[in-house]
Amino acid sequence: MIDMVAISIFFQSKVVNETPVQNFVDEHMLMREYGISMDGQVYWEDGKAVHQRLHHKFESIPSHNATLAFKIVNGTDFRNYPYLKIVGNPAKLLQGHNVYGSDNIEMCVMAVVDCFALAYPELAEVLDWFSAVIDYFDITYTAHCENDHQARQVMDILKNVKNRQTKPSYCPYEETTYWNKGSECRVLKAYLKSIEVQKQIEEATRRLARLHPNQQKTSHLARQIQEMTRPEVLKFADGAVRFEARVFAGWMKEKGVHCSLALITDPELQKKDPDIIPRLWRLAFKDVFASFEGATMNAYDTSEVHDNLRAAYFRTTNKGNISYSKADRLFVLYRAIVNDGFEQTKARFPRNTWSRILKDLTDAGLSLAQLQNLNGLTSNVVPLIQMITVNFDQQHPAGYVEPKPMRQQILQHSALALAS
After folding, report:
1. Among 223, 199, 228, CA closest to 44
2. Within a 10 A sphere around the Cβ of 276, how many other Cβ atoms?
């Protein structure tokens, strides 16, 4: 599913003050003529646009944010011309929750565009939509465990996973793991969805309780709570490990994806390349999931490991005897990893030697992720390859129907509000 979309749209020259020092739009003119501040957020409630100040720093809008955030940026060295940046979660805007949702590019991107354009129609007319570009997508898919306890085991494993250019980043929360945080190419994240959903329900309930009773019935918060507490939504969130990739425009271009708003919302694109969003996600998480490949034995069963090493590495001597010297040397190194941990054992060897050791161990049936999680503990774990499997055919509950387009929803609710 597409969990977040960020878009930049330049202003047309007729509203821009062009000077040798800076190109800019006047803040007072924007408020006077278009009723918009330099930043804020908007959402739709009972067919009407509701405008508010931002509750988060714009640069760190969380992917579960239920409103559309915007910011006007005047000319900088990075982008010489003033532009508007809008950021929104299509699933939240379209259906009130993001436990699951659509990966239809046109519908998701246009949900963000229409949410803003219909709220500020006069301003939308002085924006250069033809030059608009996608800044990033958050793309999310889910792996399901039997329950949240098993999902927590998965999170403990993921915190130690690193491979090639994908390296774990510090995160203070036990239920969340980041890789490459701060990167301008791709940032990866894994987290427990059920915990996030419960926090969102509690927060929305507290905020709704602060409203006047007359406002509560039509509040967008009431819709969110209703959607998030549906039995099928809560069931889908139970035991769900979410893998979220924020992929930026430069990285997407390297993978052959055009980031022009006009091109990416062309209906023909979805027909020609329906797998574009899952493909970007697979490429983003390629290193992480590659670390689980080759896991054909229990890394904590020493006798099984020894037997597999001997089955993989043996030779016949000149006298006709079977020699297991290489297998036994590798087993000693494996035991060192078990007793002292992956990183401490790695530090004893030159880089090239360590790479050869890892190759020999993984070729024998141990995955890189298993080895990275050998930290001196001897408890059993459920086999990794069974616990961490993203099934693209099971990303929605049975009977899921995609929501109506954002523009259609807004216009229908506005018509009903006028009729009443």
Report:
1. 223
2. 18
Residue 235 is encoded by which pair of tokens?
A: 């069931």
Nearest to 134 by CA among 98, 110, 170, 160: 110
* Side-chain-side CA neighbours of residue 250 (13 Å): 5
Question: Which segments within 145-282 are labelled E, that is strand?
Answer: 168-169, 176-179, 186-192, 240-248
Q: Are 87 and 69 in contact (CB under 8 A)?
A: yes
CB atoms within 10 A of CB 190: 24
CA torsion, points 231, 234, 239, 240, in degrees to nearest 10?
120
Pairwise CA distance, residues 405 & 118, whole Å: 13
Tell me the per-residue pLDDT of 207-220, one tens digit each, with 9 for 90 and over: 888 887 777 766 78
Domain positions in the chain: 2-291+392-419, 302-387
pLDDT digits (tens, 9 = 90+) for 189-207: 999 999 889 988 998 899 8
Read off the pLDDT of each residue in 249-273 and give the average, rounded to a whole number: 90
Closest residue by Cα to residue 7 from 180, 130, 164, 141 = 130
> Is the four-CA dihedral 390, 68, 65, 78 of positive or negative sign?
positive
How much of the chain exceeds pLDDT 70, in percent?
Answer: 92
Contact of 31 with 39, CB cutoff 8 Å: no
DSSP 29-95: HIIIII---SEEEEEEETTEEEEE--SS-GGG--TT--SEEEEEE---SSSSS-EEEEEE-HHHHHH
